[in-house]
Amino acid sequence: MIQRNLEMLIKKNYKKDKIIHISGPRQVGKTTLLKQIKKIFINPVLWLNGDESDVRAIMENPTSTKLKEIIGNNKTLVIDEAQRIPDIGIVLKLIKDNISGIKIIVTGSSAFDLANKINEPLTGRKIDLFLFPLSFKELVNNTSIIEEKRLLEHRMIYGYYPEVVTNPGNEKEILKGLTDGYLYKDLLAIEYIKKPSIIEKLLKALALRIGNEVSYYELSQLIGADKETIERYLNYLEQAYVIYRLDSFSRNLRNEIKKGKKIYFYDNGIRNALIRNFNPLALRQDTGALWENYVITERMKSIEYKGLWNNKYFWRSTSQQEIDYVEETDGKINAFEFKWKECKVKVPPQWKIAYPEASFEVINNQNYEKWIQ
Prior knowledge:
The structure is a single chain. The chain has helices at 6-14, 30-36, 53-58, 64-71, 88-98, 111-118, 136-142, 145-150, 152-158, 162-165, 171-185, 196-207, 216-223, 227-239, 268-274, 287-305, 349-354, 368-371, and strands spanning 19-23, 45-49, 76-80, 103-108, 126-130, 243-248, 261-265, 311-316, 322-329, 332-338, 359-363. By secondary structure, it is an alpha/beta fold. Strands 7-6-8-9-10-11 form a six-stranded mixed β-sheet, sandwiched between helices. A hairpin with a 2-residue loop joins β9 (322-329) and β10 (332-338). α9 (152-158) crosses α15 (268-274), α11 (171-185) packs across α15 (268-274) and α13 (216-223) packs across α14 (227-239). The radius of gyration is 22 Å and the shape is globular. It starts with 5 loop residues before the first helix and ends with a helix.
C-alpha cells in the first residue's frame, strides 16, 4: 500500500471544525486514500457518491430537516464526486450550519463545477486540499530512491497514475482506458460543449507542443475553431485538471514577452497516450519536452504537499533568449533550465542583466531528485 503525502494533511485538518474539500483529477486515488485512513473517522460514517443518480435525487431541493433525516446519527459524512450533486455548496452549508459535531469530507474531480458551486456558500467553512497522481517522493518512500531512479525513464513515458504504477505490464491498456474514458467525462457533462471532437483535436495538438509557447491563433487555424472557442476549451481542460499553464515572467521591460503561455500535462502517461507514442527515450524526438513536463509537474507536487506558496513562470525575450522555469517566492527569483543529460548551460545575457540577483540552476537526470522531493 503506497502512503500518500496528503494523508497527514487530511488527518491534521480532520480535527478542525471545517469541511475538508479534496480536489484533483479523476482516478488519482481520492476515494482509495480516504478508505486507507478511515480508522481516524469518528463512527458511524455515511459514504455517498455523487456519481449515483439516487444520491443526487435525495439531495435535490435540500432543507435542513431533510438533510438531518438523511444523515441521521452519523458523525462523519464523506461525499465522493461532490461536483455531480446540484447546489452542493448550499447542501454543505446547510449541513454545517444546522447539524452540530458532524465531520464532512468531500472529493471532486472537476474544478469548474465544484468551485462555482462551493466557494461562495462555504466561505470560511472549508479547507482545500489537492491530490495529484502519485509522486516521485511517494514512491521513493514506498520502495527506495535507488529503485525509483532506475524507473525514471519508465515514469517519463507511462506516468504516475496509481493504476498504471501498480499494474506493471498493463500500462498501455490502462492509459488507453483512462484517456478514452475519464478524460472527457467531466468535460462532456458541460451542456454547452457542442463539439467534443474539438476537445480531442486540441488535446492532441497540446500534447505535441509541451515545452513550447502556444498561440491561440495557431491552434485555431490548426483545429478549425475560432480563438475564443480555443481559449474557452483550454480553460475547461485546465479546470478539469488535465492540463495546467505557465504564464510568462515579466517586469515590463521592453524586450520581454509579456503575454506568452506554455501548457503542460498533469501526467506524462496521459500525454503520451493522447499521441499514442510509448517508444523508449532512445527512439524519441521529444525527450527534452518529456523531461521538462516531468520535472515541473513533480516540483509542483512537492511544493503543494509541503504547503508552500510561490508564483511559477517561464521567461523569454523578443530576441528568443529564454529560461524554462522561474519561481518567485517572497520576492526572491529563482531560474531553472531543464536538460535531460548533464551539460553546461550559460545564463542568457539579457536575463542576467535584467535580474542580476536571481539564482540560476540546471536540472538534469543526475541532480533532479533533491529538487522534486
